[in-house]
Specification:
Layout (H helix, E strand, L loop, with lengths): L12 E2 L2 E2 L8 H4 E3 L6 E3 L13 H13 L16 H47 L30 H4 L6 E5 L11 H10 L4 E6 L5 E5 L2 H14 L5 E4 L5 E8 L4 H11 L1 H13 L4 E8 L6 E8 L1 H10 L3 E4 L2 E8 L50 H4 L20 H12 L2 H4 L2
Antiparallel strand pairs: 1-2, 3-4, 5-7, 5-8, 6-7, 9-11, 9-13, 10-11, 12-13
Length: 432
C-alpha cells in the first residue's frame, strides 16, 4: 500500500517489484514497512547495497524481530519503528514550521507585555505624583517597544515610600444601618441627595443580606464626608466602614520544619519592602501579613506550601515588583493566588458554613438526602454515579453543562463562578 509517496523513491516496493533492482521481493521476508506512509521498502539483498536498510544477517536476527517484537525481542522493553527518508524529511519540516509559529506567538506576547508594562508604569506614576509633591517625574519614552528606560539615577524604590503606596487602593465600603428608632432602611432619596450635594463619587451600591444599604466610595475623604453628612441628614442611621477584602497567596517551596513565626521573620528579613508595606497596611486597616497555614506538598514531601493573607498593596508589590516570587533561604519561592470559597458541608451550597445552615441535608457526592460521609457510593471511581446538587438545581443551563461530578469538585462550573465572584470583590484583582 502506497499513500502519497513518490514512486521513484529508491528501494520502494511497487506491486512486489523493487524500484531499485527491479526484482521481485518477498514482502513478508525481505522488506520493512514505513510506520508513517505504510509503504514497503526492499530491506536486504538489493543489487544496490546503498539502498538496503541492513545486512541480511542483522536484518533477520535483530532488526525484523525488534520491529515485530518476536523471538528474543518479544518481552523487551520499548518498541522500534522504521520511517523512510521522505517521511523523516516531512516530520522535520513540520517541526520547523511549528517552531516558527511558536516564535511568532511568543513575539506577539512579548509585544503585549511591553505595552501592558508601559501602561502599568504610567498608572503607577500617576498614583505616585497625585499623592506627593514630587517635581521630578519618572520619564517613560513614548516609543519603548524594545525596552523601557527610567531616566533618573539612582532610582528610588517607590514601594518603600508609604506616602505613595497608601493611595493605590483607596476605595472604601460603607454600610448604612437601619434606623435605630423605626428599624427601617434609609430613604434612598435622602441618601442620593446627600451624595449629589457633597460631590461624593459612589462607584457601586448594593443591598446586604440584612436589607441594609451598602456603598462603595472612591476615597477615604469621600467616606469621611458621607459619614459626617449623614449624621445631619439621617441622624438615626449609623454608617459602618468595612475593611477592604484582602488577597490570600500560596508560597510554594518553604521548609517543612519551620514554624509560622519563624517563616514570617525570615520573609521580613530577606524581603524588607514587604515588612515596610505591612506597617502601611496596618495603618489602612487591612490584614497586614498573616500566615494562615503551612501544609506539606502532595507531590514533594520535603517541601511545604504556606498560605498567607496579605494586604492589597503587598500583593501588588509581589506581583509587579517581584514577578510573583519572594526571597526565602538560599533561593526564591513562587507565589500563587489562593481563593477560598465557603461551601456548606450540610446543604452543599456556597457562601456559608454548616454551623449557620438552615437548609436540608444533601450529599456532596450523589446529591442524595444523606450526609456525604454516609454515602455508599462516594468512594466509587465511576463519576457517572456522582451528581452535583448545585449544578443540578442551577437555573443557568448555559453555565452548567454537566452535573456528573461531586459538589466539591474543583472543576465544578458553579464553584469556578464563585471563585470569580470572590476575586472581583478584592481590590487587587479589580485593577487587572
Amino acid at each position: 500500500v502506497i499513500q502519497d509517496r513518490d514512486s521513484s523513491a529508491p528501494n520502494i516496493i511497487i506491486d512486489g517489484i523493487c524500484n531499485a533492482c527491479q526484482t521481485e521481493v518477498d514482502i513478508l521476508q525481505y522488506s520493512v514497512q514505513c510506520f508513517k506512509c505504510e509503504a514497503y521498502f526492499h530491506a536486504v539483498e538489493c543489487s544496490d547495497q546503498t539502498y538496503c536498510v541492513s545486512a541480511k544477517t542483522s536484518f533477520t536476527q535483530h532488526l525484523r524481530p525488534a520491529l515485530e517484537r518476536t523471538g528474543s525481542y518479544e518481552n523487551r522493553f520499548g518498541r522500534f519503528f522504521f520511517m523512510c527518508n521522505s517521511c523523516c524529511t516531512e516530520c522535520e519540516l513540520k517541526k520547523v514550521i511549528t517552531h516558527d509559529k511558536r516564535v511568532e506567538v511568543i513575539d506577539k506576547k512579548l509585544d503585549n507585555l511591553r505595552a501592558e508594562f508601559r501602561n502599568e508604569l504610567s498608572d503607577l506614576k500617576k498614583h505616585f505624583l497625585d499623592s506627593t509633591n514630587v517635581s521630578a517625574p519618572l520619564l517613560i519614552p513614548a516609543d519603548s517597544t524594545n525596552s523601557v528606560n527610567l531616566t533618573h539615577a539612582p532610582v528610588e524604590n517607590v514601594w518603600n515610600n508609604s506616602s505613595r503606596t497608601k493611595n493605590l487602593f483607596t476605595k472604601k465600603v460603607l454600610v448604612v444601618k437601619k434606623s435605630e428608632n423605626s428599624g427601617e432602611t434609609i430613604d434612598s432619596s435622602v441618601l442620593r441627595k446627600t451624595c449629589v450635594e457633597n460631590g461624593i463619587q459612589v462607584s457601586k451600591s448594593f443591598s446586604t443580606s440584612k436589607d441594609e444599604i451598602g456603598l462603595v466610595v472612591n476615597s477615604d475623604s469621600a467616606a469621611k464626608t458621607l459619614i459626617d453628612k449623614l449624621k445631619v441628614s439621617a441622624p438615626h442611621h449609623k454608617v459602618q466602614s468595612l475593611p477592604p477584602k484582602t488577597p490570600t497567596i500560596n508560597v510554594v517551596g518553604v521548609p517543612n520544619d519551620i514554624s509560622k513565626e519563624d517563616l514570617k521573620e525570615e520573609i521580613f528579613l530577606q524581603n524588607p519592602t514587604i515588612k515596610e508595606l505591612s506597617t502601611t497596611a496596618a495603618v489602612q486597616g487591612e490584614e497586614k501579613f498573616t500566615i494562615l497555614a503551612i501544609s506539606e506538598l502532595k507531590n514533594n514531601s520535603d517541601l511545604s506550601r504556606a498560605t498567607i493573607s496579605v494586604s492589597n498593596t503587598i500583593r501588588n508589590y509581589i506581583s509587579n515588583g517581584c514577578n510573583d516570587r519572594i526571597y526565602l533561604g538560599n533561593g526564591t519561592c513562587k507565589v500563587y493566588d489562593a481563593f477560598h470559597v465557603k461551601r456548606c458541608f450540610k446543604c452543599q451550597k456556597f457562601g456559608h458554613i454548616s454551623d449557620k445552615c438552615d437548609g436540608s441535608v444533601c450529599c456532596g457526592f450523589c446529591s442524595g438526602s444523606h450526609e456525604t460521609r454516609n454515602c455508599s457510593t462516594k468512594n466509587s471511581t465511576d463519576l457517572s454515579q456522582s451528581c452535583c446538587s448545585n449544578c443540578k438545581n442551577s437555573t443557568n443551563q448555559d453555565q452548567v453543562s454537566n452535573s456528573k461530578h461531586p459538589a466539591y469538585s474543583i472543576n465544578c462550573p458553579i464553584f469556578k463562578a464563585e471563585q470569580e465572584k470572590l476575586k472581583r470583590s478584592i481590590p487587587f484583582y479589580q485593577k487587572k
